[in-house]
Amino acid sequence: MRRLAFAAVAALVFGAGCAAGSTDSGPVLDVSAAASLKGAFTAIAEEFEKRHEGVAVRLSFDGSSTLANQIEQGAPADVFASADEKNMAKLGGLAVDPRTFATNTLVIVTAPGNPKGIDSFADLNKPGVTTVVCQSAQPCGAATDAVEKNAGITVAAASEEQSVGAVLTKVTTGQADAGVVYVTDAAAAGDTVSTVTDPVFAGVVNAYPIATLKDAPDAGLGSEFVALVLGPDGQRILRDAGFGSP
């Protein structure tokens, strides 16, 4: 699949007078997580804060490649959760003992009712169908590339987005007829989209690793957050969001 040039990574900006790792009211745990984890990790962060009085979890969601680049450039982060192993590996020794905590697969989303009659992965190339996908640098894009290879089909995408959330937005706002996203994103979108499955998706499974980061401001709290994600309560939240087991 032809991919657009990767956009330059934007710098993280925090409020004036707010040092990374703490606020006037208490410690802050910075968690960078793949965009597809937004719903599940928001719920896990709320549970973590209930268990750690005075601690605030500051969540940053974006494409995994974007987040990994930001961390490499010094953005404050205690924990990184990636939608694939490749972007975790990119951090090398910065990532401490990565552990797989979930899996995910792809699905097609369309406008409600599937007005363009898309019934398969091949139908994304039907005349009159505007399709959007993720950039290859992002896990959702790399997974789409693998599906294309397995199916022997190259999707003529109208645009290639920086995150799976951006793909979903293009479809729900009517800017695209169809998009390739994770099953969890489709589930979270509810009746704002229709979904189309294809057997070829089953052959590409993304493993999601999580790790604390070397020299993190709050490494201890980070380890406790990772333990919550890997533990029964975190796994229940992830299953409820549609993620597969590690």
UniProtKB/TrEMBL annotation:
<protein>
    <submittedName>
        <fullName>Molybdate ABC transporter substrate-binding protein</fullName>
    </submittedName>
</protein>
<dbReference type="InterPro" id="IPR005950">
    <property type="entry name" value="ModA"/>
</dbReference>
<comment type="similarity">
    <text>Belongs to the bacterial solute-binding protein ModA family.</text>
</comment>
<keyword id="KW-0479">Metal-binding</keyword>
<keyword id="KW-0732">Signal</keyword>
<feature type="signal peptide">
    <location>
        <begin position="1"/>
        <end position="19"/>
    </location>
</feature>
<dbReference type="Pfam" id="PF13531">
    <property type="entry name" value="SBP_bac_11"/>
</dbReference>
<dbReference type="InterPro" id="IPR050682">
    <property type="entry name" value="ModA/WtpA"/>
</dbReference>
